[in-house]
């Protein structure tokens, strides 16, 4: 089952990742959060934006492919893992679209 994993680091900051049904990390937060509420707010934004094709910014660097999921105002909500080819990138985007609306949050914080 897909889920968001919300964690608190040793320095008191929060971070999250979106895990797919297969356990693969699809997205991680783009910045550290100083409060759990701020992290939860961006998780909500991901849920609201992940289904829209135009919110995915595809990138390539050093022969690796990745994407940013953006809000309507182009603020980056999450960043993907790096993939060795474009097909794997597109497969990951398809998973993020279909599984990013999950209501499940596993919090260790």
Q: Topology of this protein?
A:
Layout: E1 3-8, E2 14-19, E3 25-29, H1 36-49, E4 56-61, E5 64-70, E6 76-79, H2 86-99, E7 105-107
Parallel strand pairs: 1-7
Antiparallel strand pairs: 1-2, 2-3, 3-6, 4-5, 5-6
Describe this structure in words.
- With 109 residues, this protein is of the alpha+beta class.
- It has one domain (3-107): PH-domain like (Roll), CATH 2.30.29.80.
- 26% of the residues lie in helices and 34% in strands.
- The chain has helices at 36-49, 86-99; strands spanning 3-8, 14-19, 25-29, 56-61, 64-70, 76-79, 105-107.
- The chain has a 7-stranded mixed sheet with strand order 4-5-6-3-2-1-7.
- It is globular and about 35 Å long.
- It starts with a strand and ends with a strand.
Question: Summarize this, please?
Answer:
The chain is an alpha+beta fold.
Name its key features:
single chain, 109 residues, alpha+beta, PH-domain like, 7-stranded mixed sheet, 2 helices, 26% helix, globular
**Residue windows where pLDDT falls under 50 for at least 5 positions:** none
Structure class: alpha+beta
Secondary structure tally: strands = 7
Shape: globular
How many individual helices?
Answer: 2
Overall tally of domains: 1
- pLDDT average, as an integer? 95
Strand content: 25-35%
The largest pleated sheet is described as: 7 strands, mixed
Q: Radius of gyration in whole Å, from Cα? A: 13 Å
Distance between the terminal alpha carbons, to the nearest Å?
20 Å
CATH level-two architecture: Roll
Helix-strand pattern: EEEHEEEHE
Text of the CATH class: Mainly Beta
Estimate the helix proportion, in percent. 25-40%
Strand order across the largest sheet: 4-5-6-3-2-1-7
CATH topology: PH-domain like
Family: Belongs to the UPF0339 family. Duplicated subfamily.
Protein name: YegP family protein
InterPro entries: DUF1508, UPF0339_domain, YegP-like_sf
Pfam family, one: DUF1508
């Amino acid at each position: 089952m897909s889920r968001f994993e919300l964690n608190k680091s040793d320095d008191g900051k929060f971070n999250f990742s979106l895990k797919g049904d297969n356990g693969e990390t699809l997205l991680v937060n783009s910045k550290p959060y100083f409060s759990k509420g701020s992290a939860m707010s961006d998780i909500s934004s991901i849920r609201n934006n992940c289904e829209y094709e135009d919110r995915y910014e595809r990138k390539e660097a050093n022969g690796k492919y990745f994407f940013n999921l953006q809000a309507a105002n182009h603020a980056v909500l999450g960043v993907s893992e790096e993939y060795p080819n474009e097909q794997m990138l597109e497969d990951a985007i398809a998973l993020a679209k279909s599984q990013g609306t999950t209501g499940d949050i596993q919090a260790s914080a």
